[in-house]
Amino acid sequence: KQEVTQIPAALSVPEGENLVLNCSFTDSAIYNLQWFRQDPGKGLTSLLLIQSSQREQTSGRLNASLDKSSGRSTLYIAASQPGDSATYLCAVEPLSGTYKYIFGTGTRLKVLA
Amino acid sequence: GAVVSQHPSRVICKSGTSVKIECRSLDFQATTMFWYRQFPKQSLMLMATSNEGSKATYEQGVEKDKFLINHASLTLSTLTVTSAHPEDSSFYICSAVAPSGAGDTQYFGPGTRLTVL
Q: Closest Cα of chain A to B65: distance in Å?
């Protein structure tokens, strides 16, 4: 059974710092991995989608990497800003292609001004 | 990108009542939609897969008679929480699969916060 774990559960950093969020999954047979942002009481905003054949994806100050064989993904946020404060979720879609995402428990990020 | 809406965004009801939540794909047709629920400070858990024109497929541990799902059209799926109780209070999020030339993409709705008093 696929399990997705995110470390740390919570993170507080001063503005301007570069930071890394970690995601690990137990079954490397994935179709893709996606990073989401969730603001309090809000839905999900897709940040980056990495297909299983890809190693990384970049969007602005965000860079996500994928090492499928080791079951790890990282989300790198450069020059963090208070507006980046949110919960970041990673989710994997199994190789079966059923579209059923399995979510991690999230990392609650707070960027201090 | 494609848009998925949910209505209502927030609902408060008394214990024992039923609540219907709508999930709509606004600019695409979705043969498959999913319903997730999220308890405070926990991750999203898949509840069921909603397929247009057929019965929903429920994940293990989800009561199908408690959470009624109807996918009557290619743009609308509804989740009805029957005889709601305080333990049903949660954040419910739907997603819809949009076919695209580069492979199907899943889009998430904004969520519905249900509070049962």
A: 22
